């Protein structure tokens, strides 16, 4: 497996819901995103290619995926920005280990609404988040 990480396994959607459920202030959610970002392992430079770099993000972002033997997808990524890296962590938690078909049937950004994160994002970060979601969907479509 390329670039393993804890998202979707050790850090699950349910654990994120529990982590964010008591947070009412955006600053507290912001801190949690930074803490999540620390769990995203640095991507090896060999995986930071023009093919994996996303456009439309405030910071440089790389997103890649591979299809596992069981048919599920493993996503990996990195970003130069801490907040964007935290947003990436949430996206990875939502899509990791699912089949391409399951990914295409769900909104990869639905977890952001559940966690109360989407409404506080700046326009540029919201645009970057949309680019992340589209990147995930494109990788899932290619894997079909």
Automatic annotation (TrEMBL):
Residues 17-134 form the Fe-S metabolism associated domain. InterPro entries: Cysteine_desulfurase_CsdE, Fe-S_metab-assoc_dom. The active site is at residue 57. It is an enzyme of class 2 (transferase). The keyword Transferase applies. Belongs to the SufE family. This is Cysteine desulfurase sulfur acceptor subunit CsdE.
